[in-house]
Amino acid sequence: MDQTITKPRSFQEIILRLQTYWAGQGCAVMQPYDMEVGAGTFHPATTLRSLGSKPWAAAYVQPSRRPTDGRYGENPNRLQHYYQYQVLIKPSPPDLQELYLGSLRAIGIDMALHDIRFVEDDWESPTLGAWGLGWEVWCDGMEVSQFTYFQQVGGHDCHPVSGELTYGLERLAMYVLGVDHVMDMPYNDPDAPIALSYGDVFRQTEQEYSRWNFDVADTDVLLRHFEEAEAECARILDQDADDPKTGKRIIMAHPAYDQCIKASHIFNLLDARGVISVTERQSYIGRVRALAKRCADAFVMTEAGGFAA
Amino acid sequence: MPDLLIELFSEEIPARMQGKAADDLKARVTNGLVEAGLTYAGAAAYSTPRRLALRVDGLTERSPDVKEERKGPRVDAPEKAIEGFLRGAGVARDDLIERDEKKGRVFYAVIEKPGRDAAAIVAEVLEDTIRNFPWPKSMRWGSGALRWVRPLHRITCLLSREDGSEVVELDIDGIASGRTTEGHRFMAPGAFDVTGFDDYEAKLKRAHVVLDAAERAEAIWQDATNQAFANGLEVVKDNGLLTEVSGLVEWPVVLMGEIGEDFLGLPPEVLQTSMKEHQKFFSVKNPKSGRIERFITVANRETADHGATILAGNQKVLSARLSDAKFFWENDLRVATTDGLTAWTDSLSNVTFHNKLGSQKARIERITALARELAPVVGADADLAAQAATVAKADLASEMVYEFPELQGLMGRYYSDAAGLPSEVGAACQEHYSPLGPSDDVPSAPVSVAVALADKIDTLTGFWAIDEKPTGSKDPFALRRAALGVIRLVLENELSLSLDQFIDMQLVRHKGHLIDEVSETDIDDLIREIAEHGVFGAAYLALKAKRDGATDGLVAMNGAVPDKSVDLLSFFHDRLKVYLRDEGVRHDVIDACLGMPGNDDLALLVKRAKALQAVLDTEDGENLVQGFKRANNILTQAEEKDGVEYSFGGDPKFAEHPTEVALFDALAQAESRITPAMQAQDFSAAMSAMADLRGPVDAFFEAVQVNAESDVLRRNRLNLLSSIRSTCLQVADLTKIEG
Known about the structure:
The structure holds two protein chains of two kinds. In chain A, 39% of the residues lie in helices and 19% in strands. By secondary structure, chain A is of the alpha+beta class. In chain A, strands 1, 2, 3, 4, 5, 6, 7, 8 and 9 form a nine-stranded mixed β-sheet that branches. In chain A, strand 6 (130-139) and strand 7 form a beta hairpin. Chain A is globular and about 60 Å long. The N and C termini of chain A lie far apart (47 Å). By secondary structure, chain B is of the alpha+beta class. Chain B has 27 helices and 18 strands. The model of chain B has no long low-confidence stretch (mean pLDDT 91).
């Protein structure tokens, strides 16, 4: 145990330390996916790469959007846009719990003073047709991460099994930095010439998006976009695997999956606008899941998905 | 005699699964050992978050040699049959012996199974146990195919004797057995070797692991109550939570913290639920004020600062949680006091109860209508019952119940009181879900009873109307529980009500919603007629007569309702049988009473059954049944022979023999006691009068030949017997009584 680790001083320092730590554990440090997603799991580096037989190790920050959680920047810990830190290693290494605990040490949590616990919490994503078993990790009663062994994704059994770690960065950072309101959290070094708080960076956008999400987003347009994304996803996957132009076998799993992500996010927006009834909700979720399944079916037929021609 | 130690060391096992897993480990391993021919003196299983352990003491060293003889075909049987026998028994031709038997000379195979060493058996049994362990949910990990509740890391398996211990060798998907284990994840990292159970348990304790869950629970409870007591407080007992928390720690450290002053105004149930559900905290109460003022959390380690950091962290998390709860509470109170609870009820039109049965709002409206009908029968004010039913489920739309569904009903009461509604209404909000289980209290306040009954009858009739009845072990809508709830509400409140009528009314309401052609007016008219005429059939005919034969859309519903109503009533009767059997009422007694008129009045039915059972246990009862059976048997035989039914009753003027005259007198006398007793539903008195008939009946049969020469005499005597039969059948169908 390294007792010399200093306390981080800002939100970004915690992110940087996680990046350094997981890079040191051999993960490919990836960048956020360039689309709106509800959680880091949606990044193809997790959803698609957890499928098939090929080994994989990736870590990345993923900006995540949950329109219904918007509180105009006023709630101390609820945001419609926040960051998740995501680690996915396939096959899950036998010492994944120890590796994880190492990451907590790296961001300045002193194991000798804190009470870390692995509390049962099984993960399920009805929209991705995915589930796994694991825990939520508690630090002094506070949930700081999700720890999951993926069993199924997109309706496919995971062989080998991926270990997935998800850190809610704002909450974790607030805890480590001892901040009570997310907007008060130092974003960069508080002694920097231009010190910025989380609120300096995000308060205004939280307000803007909260208003748009709840009251302004054009639901007719969104409904149409949903249908279009759904149709496009199906159309992409209906294409012949053999590309007539290059003569190569090119299954377009990723472009199709982009449409699935899009449909999923639009569904979340519609949900926030309150135009989806309880019964319709299930049917929308089912439609997104159907897309996710088809994308998974397609991905396992590709080289990255472990398909050997 | 060696002792066996097994430990299965894994990543954190969900707390709720640990106890049963320990029991399963013990049962599976010991059963396997015994089946393989070993015996043992004693066994005990243990669990912590990271391990299941089993000790088996005094195991035999080897299973005994077994010699088994198997009988084969006759020696002159076809070659094929003999070959088949050899294959099945796994022996060679030369190993067969021959024996003379009654049917000829027969082959016997002698199969010898030598005993095996305990180690070999243990290895086999443990492997089988691990591979087939009954986890409620299990998983794979890494690249392997083995399933366990979470990744399994170590298998410790030792046979220890006085001269030392040996590792029982096994390897399951790359996990080799050994003698190594680990202590507390943080307080004593690193592996160590053990030699047997005592050594294992002692070393674990040194490594900050208390192996026995009961010992951990005991320590937690002791320490928690002591800390509370030292502050003049008491811990709110919660055995479920205690068990769960004991499964979350290997080295329990009890810490008591304060609840911020801001939150002490929240209802105690909210504090308790929030702390328990989210944080697994115990509530600590001030016995003087009854308020919950502190919490107890159980950490999994000691620290240099005596838990100060841990407690501060927990306190902070609690504050955030309670801020949410307070936010919900204050928002809800604002809605309740400004818009009223009906605003929530209205918003429930957007919430589906069941896709065929409509929204929660529609459901509430049906329940309200029925509660109004039920009110007079249960002694409640009809308007008050309707008002209560309208708001009883309003809290389902509140933020607090959205967050904590288990607070439904209770929050309704708080909000109803806050809105200034009558206290009976608040009580109904809270109590109308009851009784939930067989041991749950039954509400007795009339308004609560009306809403509770209406709620359950509406649920039952609704699912009957759409043919979603319970089948076998499947009862997703808890309809058996609802029926039992109705039964207990009726019986424990001694309510006399005709269930048929209310079932019919509510079925008509459901059918009206389900069948498009039926208009609201038709439904209302029909329900009014049911209220007047009792049941659907009569009401339907009355309505038809009133409208000169025209029932229009109602035709679509004709037939379906009486069918379902009979079916649902028999479902109630089945539940009642189960209920009464638990109360010690004989099944033949229940059957004898079920066939009687008014069997939809459950209180009457039970009164009848209990009276019959009580009488049957006495000499009177014996006399009643025997007297009845004797008369009935002869009568039935005669009726079968003659092909007619004797039902006129005899005429005393044809009575010839003194015993015959006496029987007529006795019958008249009995009738004069039975009629008023039946009117007063005093079944015991009625049955006692019937029992008195046995003497005259016996004397009559002794002296008189029923099948007399004279046809007039014979018929008169048979008709006399038929009077006895009909008299006795007034109270119950005695033909159903056994013995």
